[in-house]
Amino acid sequence: MHAWPSLTLFSAAAFSNLPGWPMPQYPGYPPASHVIDYLEHYERRYDLPVRRPVHVRSVSHDGGMFFLDSTVGQFTADHVVAATGTWSAPFVPHYPGTFRGRQWHSSTYPGPEPFRGAKVAVVGGANSGAQIAADLLVTSEVTWFTLERPRWMPDDVDGRDLFLRSRRRILGGDSGPNLGDIVALPHLRELRDSGPLSATPIFDSLSELDHDHLIWCTGFRPALGPFRHLMRGREPAVKNLYLVGYGNWTGDGSATLMGVGPFAKHTARVVAGRVDEARQHEF
């Protein structure tokens, strides 16, 4: 699992469960290490046939079958569920000019220690930008750049509220007004209210920056590499290819630990139904 050391969930453990077995309780907001431990135990508990490390180089489709080429061999399949996420497809916007320091993305952020004593520019007006800027305040001279003034969610809102709003949208209900872009975790609120965590309007050119490091906290795109040619826009172009966990592409909240469950269950039911239908046609 990829995560920087100080990363935490935005909601309590009770609202971050996978089907069948709840995440162990944790006071406050669980850190990445708690989530990783939960996922490892979940895998062992259900004896899930996970193979790692495996890199799928390509997925082709011919005659109603899928052909997968990977670092551990070649496979064929009647159905393929694409759940590659977004982490391996970080997005960096284009800006004119030249930055002479080292550039990073939030996906490669190693924690604050390598930046000790340095000038660091953090770009991004959502959760990762706020969290990483706050993380670096102890060790570095930080400038937090945002395109617009940061939109903080109300202090009493966390991931639980966002999950419930997502469910209402999925069910066709009114989810209410947009609450903002940044969950005001307790340590972020303290730094925001006391002054150190404040944003600076975004630069026009990279050449304006005299920082040692530039960290892009500008999000991700769906990592569709092995099967992009089997897509038509955001939809599969071939039958029996399914997408799960790509955010708004595949359902509001589907890219979150607490929200992916209903979408995964739906996909599993569709696959099982088509497998049963194919078997019946064989007899």
Automatic annotation (TrEMBL):
GO terms for molecular function: flavin adenine dinucleotide binding; monooxygenase activity. Gene3D superfamilies: FAD/NAD(P)-binding domain (3.50.50.60). Keywords: Oxidoreductase. The keyword 4Fe-4S does not apply. It holds the Pfam family Pyr_redox_3. This is Oxidoreductase.
